[in-house]
Amino acid sequence: MKLIFVVCWSLIAVSLASAQCRETVSGDFQSKEFSAPCPVFNFSYQGVNSQSWVFPTRALDISLVADEVLPVKQRLEQQLQAYVGEEFFSKLQFKSVDISNYDSIAKFQGRYPPVDMYACKTKYFFYYHYVPTAEIKYCIGIALDDKAQIISPFNFPASRDYLPLESQLDFCKVMDIAAKTRTPITPIESVSFDFDTDKQKFFWWIKQKIVNPKVGENERNEISIEAADSGQVVSYKKIILLDADGTVVVKSQVSPPNKEPLKKIRAPR
How far apart are CA 17 and CA 120, in angstroms? Predict the structure, then answer.
């Protein structure tokens, strides 16, 4: 067994070492729940300047709705700054905003997903990127109702919980740390930078791909690395529940899956 492990680990180390450094885009805008059901037009500073609004699948110039949306944007960003603090807020980049136009439903005939006014609960949906380093973009979406009140949960920390991230911790260093744990992790399904709402911290997660998925319980290894302290590394075995279509069964549908720790280490710097 020792010989097999050494051979397998050698292959893993080569695979991880060969990974190229790249920009990491993670997080969840939450637009599927809050914006997708609505008849929205998207506006950005780089959008198309068209008075006819015949580009529902392309961003329009935000100047077309400046009087309406810019005051809303200003109030929202004041609220965000008060919640997250100056350091985090300084790393937020506005991307675009969706505005529900209830008089334009006919223009969205044939769109998928279709407009569903019963599920539509958003008037404004703002897209932001949190950019702690040049190599990381973390997606943040904020939904507002008709009264411009925030109705979406926050997937980022309050100022009291915010910890500055390690500036040198990027995709390549994360892969190097994963290799040093000697945890069997290949083939890799994903490497992501995400926020743990329970611990109120940012983590890097490396998840092993399930090679032969089956209905019910499937095991895979995962590694988590604290983004504010890369010495805090945990390797664990996780049980993933899949349905007949190979879709992950979410926690709300079943009891929480087991998490069997493999090891907790302070990785070498």
Answer: 46
Q: Enter the pTM of the model.
A: 0.81
Per-residue pLDDT, averaged over 203-226, amounts to: 91
Q: Which tens digit of pLDDT belongs to each residue from 14-64?
A: 344 344 566 788 888 999 899 999 999 999 999 888 877 765 678 899 999
Of 157, 122, 119, 117, which Cα lies nearest the Cα of 143?
A: 122
Boundaries of domain holding 110: 25-144
Rg of the chain over all Cα atoms, to the nearest angstrom? 22
Q: Is residue 179 part of a domain?
A: yes
Task: Let me know whether 180 and 130 are in one domain.
Answer: no
> What is the rounded distance in angstroms from the CA atom of residue 166 to the CA atom of residue 133?
9
21, 22, 27, 29 alpha-carbon torsion, rounded to 10°: 180
Residues 52 and 134 in one domain: yes
35 and 136 housed in the same domain: yes
Alpha-carbon torsion 96, 63, 78, 131, what sign?
positive
